[in-house]
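Retro notes (design track)

What went well: tokenization of the new backbones is finally stable.
What didn't: we kept losing track of which sequence belonged to which structure.
Fix going forward: every design gets posted as structure first, then sequence, in one message. First example under the new rule, 165 residues:
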């Protein structure tokens, strides 16, 4: 008897990770925080030594360094920049999410639910087509005599599939 541990092969694309975790991408978070710090320093009276170091900064000594005063501040929000990046990218199943910065429906679901949804989203769940491909079952066919893929299972389901006979 063979045991299937996860049944998944394809990993989640990195562009999906911030969206599914509802955490902005690291570079956008750094940019936002840098902008906030620079605006805060400019609004205070020049009494802190840190302010003079940043506002009247010394010349750059090493090309490899990226000090805070060379950072470009953005007037756009993190949500806007994230949305623009999402629109420019071409991840698989992109049409499922319109606004990547909003929590996806079912955010508070259990791990088992999220595992099942991820298997459906990546089309790499346990179905006869993949199990046959991996040599775990004899036939890739469903009860209705069509190839049983994840898409087939989602489109027809167990009730409609058995009625096709």
């Amino acid at each position: 008897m063979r045991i299937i541990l996860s049944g998944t092969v394809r990993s989640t694309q990195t562009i999906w990770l911030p969206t599914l975790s509802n955490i902005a991408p690291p570079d956008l978070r750094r940019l936002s925080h840098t902008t906030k710090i620079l605006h805060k320093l400019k609004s205070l009276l020049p009494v802190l030594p840190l302010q003079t170091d940043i506002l009247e900064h010394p010349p750059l000594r090493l090309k490899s360094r990226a000090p805070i005063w060379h950072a470009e501040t953005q007037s756009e929000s993190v949500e806007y920049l994230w949305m623009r990046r999402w629109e420019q990218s071409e991840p698989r199943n992109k049409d499922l999410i319109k606004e990547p910065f909003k929590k996806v429906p079912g955010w508070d679901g259990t791990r088992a639910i999220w595992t099942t949804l991820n298997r459906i989203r990546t089309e790499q769940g346990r179905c006869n087509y993949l199990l046959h491909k991996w040599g775990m079952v004899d036939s890739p066919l469903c009860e209705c005599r069509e190839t049983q893929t994840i898409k087939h299972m989602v489109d027809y389901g167990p009730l409609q599939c058995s009625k096709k006979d």
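Added context from the reviewer: The mean pLDDT is 80.
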